[in-house]
TrEMBL record:
UniProt name for this protein: Uncharacterized protein
GO function term, MF aspect, one: DNA binding
Disordered: region residues: 1-42, 188-215, 239-263
Protein species of origin: Halobaculum saliterrae
Compositionally skewed regions (Acidic residues) per UniProt: 243-254
GO BP terms in the entry: DNA replication
Domain of life: Archaea
Length: 263
């Protein structure tokens, strides 16, 4: 756990390479020669990059905009864009469309224009503002850390011949268990159980809890009517019914259900 966290969070010695745009000014705002990792304003670029991430995480638009601008104008645009791409997966809620915006802003700033000139800088500001305005969340790194910790605890318990105190969300993942529906014709276990097209269409292709829209439900109903399996009306209705929001993996069995393969 510590190794992964240090790789993502450590800057400076032993971290990322010190590299400034060769065309960047060699003096800071005070006319003094800049150090290898110094910005035009006289700040350490690792600290500014860290501030940018914290500003995005805390939705502080002004600070995020300044930090991005400072890195871009100082010849560290490559550092800025590299970090922003990390932030959209590390510090924002999944599904935020800003991830695509950041890529587009980078393309404009680095391929169409020069990163440190005014158009490149306003692209940096735009990207930082978009990130800061998006919904912040640490869900992905929190999930990664939990899954890694659970894997370690699980392995240690296995070595001791004990049940783990912390386990993966699926627990005992096997046919007949809570996630039985996963073992359909696309898996070896499901194939051995004779679960073919009938099982998959009735149970494995369901969505929810919002369910299918009317057009998709109509297509599924027609597909099942045209299928080589003679589906019952009960099976067809179940296939297009929304998954229960409280019991997402609960599946009934049908008396006439049998194994079959799609053509």
């Amino acid at each position: 756990m510590a190794d992964d966290e240090s790789r993502q969070a450590t800057f400076g010695a032993g971290g990322e390479l010190s590299e400034r745009d060769p065309d960047a000014d060699g003096a800071n705002d005070f006319g003094e020669p800049k150090e290898a990792d110094e910005t035009d304003g006289g700040f350490n670029r690792y600290a500014v990059s860290s501030l940018l991430q914290k500003a995005v995480r805390r939705s502080d638009e002004e600070v995020a905009a300044w930090a991005a601008w400072e890195l871009a104008r100082s010849g560290f645009a490559w550092n800025l864009w590299d970090r922003l791409h990390l932030y959209v997966v590390e510090d924002l809620r999944a599904g935020q469309e800003v991830a695509l915006l950041v890529e587009r802003y980078e393309e404009l700033a680095t391929e169409r224009w020069e990163p440190a000139e005014w158009r490149g800088r306003i692209c940096a500001v735009h990207a930082a503002l978009a990130c800061a305005r998006a919904t912040s969340s640490r869900e992905s790194p929190n999930a990664d850390e939990f899954f890694r910790n659970a894997a370690e605890a699980r392995a240690e318990a296995h070595e001791r011949g004990e049940e783990p105190s912390i386990d993966f969300p699926v627990g005992e993942f096997e046919p007949g268990g809570e996630y039985d529906v996963a073992f359909d014709k696309h898996t070896g276990e499901g194939s051995r159980l004779g679960r073919g097209g009938e099982f998959f269409k009735t149970h494995g292709a369901r969505v929810g809890p919002e369910g299918e829209d009317d057009q998709s439900a109509r297509w599924q109903r027609l597909n099942m009517a045209l299928h080589e399996v003679d589906f019952s009306e009960e099976q067809i209705e179940h296939a297009i019914d929304p998954v229960d929001s409280d019991e997402k993996w609960e599946e009934p069995s049908f008396e006439d259900e049998r194994g079959s393969d799609d053509p």
